[in-house]
Amino acid sequence: MVVKSAAAEATAQTNRTIAVNRKARHEYFIEDTVEAGLVLSGTEVKSARQGRVSLAEAYARIDQGEAWLLGMHIAPYEQGNRYNLEPTRKRKLLLHKREIVALIWKTQQQGLTVVPLRLYFKRGHAKLELGVARGKKLHDKRDTLARRETEREIARALGARDR
């Protein structure tokens, strides 16, 4: 029998996903992913821990050597009163300089964009999984949906055969 320590259980609980940008996988081909820290205020952290975050309209931009996240909505914390900030304010991303340079090169030279894929807490710190992505055309989206449907039908047929 394996006994977990209280610290191990606390770590396991804090490594949980808060929000996922499902729309990003539909709209883009994800070519690479990067983990970035996220600068949040106290009430934003409390609201995020409650899961009151939306990444649907969010995107990342690099200005003057710094990475910023725009359009992410964090609902105001109910007990935060005057300490609450604007829900869709610009938030700083914490990346190493070489990661920022790589993102600049990919977005400017290769015509890619940076979109948030997932927000989660790792050892008590807010982390954001960023995807370096290429936009899908309408026919690409249709192909993806058709492929997903055929995979479901195959799985359904195999499941019925096994019964």
Fold topology:
Elements (H helix, E strand, L loop, with lengths): L5 H9 L2 E4 L1 H6 E11 L3 H8 L3 E2 L4 E5 L2 E5 L2 E2 L16 E4 L2 H13 L3 E10 L2 E11 L2 H25 L1
Antiparallel strand pairs: 1-8, 2-7, 2-9, 3-6, 4-5, 5-7, 8-9
Overview of this structure, please?
The protein has a seven-stranded antiparallel beta sheet with strand order 1-8-9-2-7-5-4. A two-stranded antiparallel ribbon has the order 3-6. It starts with 5 loop residues before the first helix and ends with a helix. By secondary structure, the chain is α+β, with helices and mostly antiparallel strands. The chain has helices spanning 6-14, 22-27, 42-49, 97-109, 138-162, and strands at 17-20, 28-38, 53-54, 59-63, 66-70, 73-74, 91-94, 113-122, 125-135. The chain has five helices and nine strands. The chain has a single domain, classed as Small protein B (Small Protein B, Chain: A, Beta Barrel), CATH 2.40.280.10. It is globular and about 60 Å long.
